[in-house]
């Protein structure tokens, strides 16, 4: 099973040290009720070979490489292990000549977000709902001192640890399998990311308050979420499903979202990007057995979801505490 003690040691002498008052007990509880496949997934990480990369690139990709090429058999064994951790949703990863072609081209989103951020160099960063951790590695590549991702999903934790092992066991990023509602208000992170989370929350204002409670004074929130057209009173509340997803509760307009953030006490709130999600950014690959975006859209009219709602459009909002 995955050992969190190195992370405890890592934060003991940092501004995150107060988290040690509650974190070990929470993770012990998480480990006492594991997902049914967790033991199998954790074993995959053990079975992955320990390879030393001569070159690691986190600036323009998430990539490791060795001067000595792997044999075809070695490559196939690694591919076999990594495919035990499907579906791979956020990526892509280029690990020792193996291209893990995930459902999402998460590099597209990163390229839209990065130019607008306060520089990440030397910062302590929290990534809420981080998935398998693709963006966490890009944050490290942008110079972050330490990146902590939180996501309660056991599969994402195991995917993250598998990638870490193939990145020379880099410890500048760590994934903790908890939800933000389980975190005490630390108030120390220089930058907090919440990307693709808000529309899954039954109480979006509570989520914004929780994000604010993790930020240091003056720290920057990076919020990316689904939006619809309209004024500050426009909020779509879908029926049972939106784009075949069950757990979508509120999709505001950009103006409404800015209003929510101001109501939650954020300042300097601004929208820096709005982009329609395309089938080039989210699509089915050999690393995903499930349906993808093309299956969620009206086959006759891609400007609508299969339920008749506006097709996915995402905005990036920045704000300060």
UniProtKB/TrEMBL annotation:
Catalytic activity annotated for this protein? carboxy-S-adenosyl-L-methionine + 5-hydroxyuridine(34) in tRNA = 5-carboxymethoxyuridine(34) in tRNA + S-adenosyl-L-homocysteine + H(+)
- Reported EC number(s) for this entry are 2.5.1.-
Keyword tRNA processing in annotation? yes
The GO biological-process annotations, alphabetized, read as:
methylation; tRNA wobble uridine modification
Top-tier EC class:
transferase
Task: Give me the residues that bind carboxy-S-adenosyl-L-methionine, please.
Answer: 90, 104, 109, 129, 151-153, 180-181, 195, 199, 314
Q: Does the keyword Nucleus apply?
A: no
Q: Which GO terms describe its molecular function?
A: methyltransferase activity; transferase activity, transferring alkyl or aryl (other than methyl) groups
Keywords in UniProt for this one? Answer: Methyltransferase, Transferase, tRNA processing
Function noted in UniProt: Catalyzes carboxymethyl transfer from carboxy-S-adenosyl-L-methionine (Cx-SAM) to 5-hydroxyuridine (ho5U) to form 5-carboxymethoxyuridine (cmo5U) at position 34 in tRNAs.
Q: How does it assemble?
A: Homotetramer.
Which family is this protein grouped under?
Answer: Belongs to the class I-like SAM-binding methyltransferase superfamily. CmoB family.
Q: What is this protein called?
A: tRNA U34 carboxymethyltransferase
């Amino acid at each position: 099973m995955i050992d969190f003690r190195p992370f405890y040691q890592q934060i003991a002498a940092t501004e995150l040290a107060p988290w040690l008052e509650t974190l070990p007990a929470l993770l012990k509880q998480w480990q006492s009720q594991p997902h049914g496949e967790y033991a199998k997934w954790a074993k995959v990480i053990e079975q992955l070979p320990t390879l030393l990369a001569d070159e690691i690139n986190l600036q323009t990709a998430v990539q490791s490489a060795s001067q000595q090429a792997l044999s075809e058999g070695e490559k196939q064994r690694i591919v076999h292990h990594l495919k035990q951790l499907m579906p791979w949703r956020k990526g892509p990863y280029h690990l020792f000549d193996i291209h893990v072609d995930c459902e999402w081209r998460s590099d597209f989103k990163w390229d839209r977000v990065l130019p607008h951020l306060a520089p990440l160099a030397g910062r302590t960063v929290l990534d809420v709902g981080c998935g398998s951790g693709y963006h966490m590695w890009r944050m490290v590549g942008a110079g972050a001192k330490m990146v902590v991702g939180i996501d309660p999903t056991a599969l994402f934790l195991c995917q993250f640890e598998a990638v870490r092992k193939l990145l020379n066991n880099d410890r500048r990023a760590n994934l903790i399998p908890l939800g933000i509602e389980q975190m005490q208000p630390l108030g120390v992170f220089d930058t907090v990311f919440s990307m693709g989370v808000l529309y899954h929350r039954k109480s979006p204002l509570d989520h914004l308050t929780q994000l604010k409670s993790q930020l240091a004074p003056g720290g920057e929130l990076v919020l990316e979420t689904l939006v619809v057209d309209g004024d500050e009173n426009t909020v779509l509340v879908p029926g049972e499903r939106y784009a075949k997803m069950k757990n979508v509760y509120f999709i505001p307009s950009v103006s409404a979202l800015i209003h929510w953030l101001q109501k939650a006490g954020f300042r300097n709130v601004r929208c820096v990007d709005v982009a329609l999600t395309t089938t080039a950014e989210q699509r089915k690959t050999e690393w995903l057995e499930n349906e993808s975006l093309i299956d969620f859209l009206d086959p006759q009219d891609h400007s609508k979801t299969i339920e008749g709602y506006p097709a996915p459009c995402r905005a990036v909002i920045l704000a300060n505490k």
